[in-house]
Design goal:
By secondary structure, the protein is α/β, with parallel strands linked by helices. It is built from eleven helices and ten strands. α2 packs parallel to α3, α4 crosses α11 and α6 crosses α8. The longest helix has about 35 residues. It is globular and about 65 Å long. The structure holds 5'-O-[(R)-(carboxyoxy)(hydroxy)phosphoryl]adenosine and zinc ion (ZN).
């Protein structure tokens, strides 16, 4: 399966194999990040992103095919992320996939980008359904019950900012670079997490939802109060912010796992996905939580947690194995919630 990803600021193409035992193998996985093109603007500029995808996508696909030593005749399908995401970029990837599918008479699979994040743990670790997914990226913060291919139940969501977005906005207001997550984590390692008393929004609520915009505002007020900021002030703010996020993730996921058990019984694992799962402090707190609850923790390697083509190819392969393909007039979608996807095997 060829997988194409263009929903945000990474252009990516990959070839993945799924054998009859549903074991996955990545034959190539090429990601070109546009970070440099957007850095000057402190965030992703949709128009720049779409143009950058157009410029490199065909070359990346050729490179992915060459590295995998794969010919188009050997492909069983072509998968592209058809949303959710920045619509200009989604159109570039999906239209390219349609053209290739038409020319090579190969099935097209229009993959939901979030579904691809959700299924990555089956590529890396072969985990069985059902499992609990914590998806934390720049655009999404969700706790999801993954019950089968296409069978996703949303347990918790953010009411405002996503976790990655909170990292990015905090970095921006402290004058750090974009993307903010890695930079905030680096500074936090040099700071005192107890110096600032920041809020832990939603703590102890039964509903496993998040609200993070208040935390970001609290960081801003503290920064304004003590301005001008020394390097140590910035480090202490980053450390205190990250600690508030870590405590919030622990508490909200505990509520999420409780809800999972109430509705679906014991999960086979807690799976983390999305760029934020690269954060070591967040990984440690997930480890502590799953140790306490005697649940397996699966965190795919960072390169498969952030946006990539292998996850799209794998989701395409899982869907194709269930007999799910899409017509060539399938529409790109800027918004496409996971729960809108229909289960491959209807539940009776
Ligand atoms: O999944 P992803 O690559 O792209 C999407 O948003 O779909 O996630 C990117 C997000 C950014 O907000 C970035 O700041 C955050 O993940 N991130 C991190 C870390 N690395 C990336 N957040 C916290 N700590 C990190 N080490
Ligand atoms: Zn993503």
């Amino acid at each position: 399966m060829l997988g194409i990803e263009t929903t945000c600021d990474e252009t990516a193409a990959a070839i993945v194999e799924r054998d009859t035992d549903r074991r996955g193998r990545i034959l190539s996985n090429i990601v070109l990040s546009q970070t440099d093109e957007h850095a000057a603007f402190g965030g992703v500029v949709p128009e720049i992103a779409a143009r950058a995808h157009v410029e490199v996508l065909d070359l990346l696909i050729a490179q992915a095919m060459a590295e995998a030593q794969c010919s188009f005749d050997a492909l069983d399908g072509i998968a592209a992320a058809a949303g959710p995401g920045l619509i200009g970029g989604v159109i570039v990837g999906l239209t390219t996939a349609k053209a290739l599918a038409l020319v090579h008479r190969t099935p097209l699979i229009a993959v939901n980008h979030l579904e691809a994040h959700a299924l990555t743990a089956r590529l890396t670790d072969g985990v069985d359904f059902p499992y609990c997914l914590f998806l934390a990226s720049g655009g999404h913060t969700q706790i999801v019950a993954v019950r089968g291919v296409g069978d996703y139940a949303l347990l918790g969501n953010t009411m405002d900012d996503a976790v990655g977005e909170a990292f990015d906005k905090t970095a921006k207001l402290l004058g750090l670079g974009y993307p903010g997550g890695p930079e905030v984590e680096r500074r936090a390692a040099l700071g005192n997490p107890q110096r600032f008393a920041l809020p832990r929004p939603m703590q102890h609520r039964r509903e496993p939802d998040f609200s993070l915009s208040g935390l970001k505002t609290a960081v801003r007020l503290e920064a304004e109060r003590i301005a001008p900021l020394s390097d140590q002030d910035v480090a202490d703010l980053c450390a205190s912010f990250q600690q508030a996020i870590v405590d919030t993730v622990y508490d909200r996921l505990r509520a999420g796992l409780r809800r999972f058990r109430e509705r679906y019984g014991a999960p086979n694992a807690l799976v983390a996905a999305g760029g934020v799962a690269a954060n070591q402090s967040i990984r440690q707190t997930l480890q502590r939580l799953t140790d306490e609850q005697d649940i397996a923790l699966i965190v795919p390697p960072p390169a498969l947690c952030t946006d990539n083509g292998a996850m799209i190819a794998w989701a395409g392969a899982e869907r194709l194995a269930c007999g799910l393909t899409d017509p060539l007039d399938v529409a790109p979608r800027a918004r496409w919630p996971l729960e809108a996807i229909v289960p491959a095997i209807p539940r009776g």
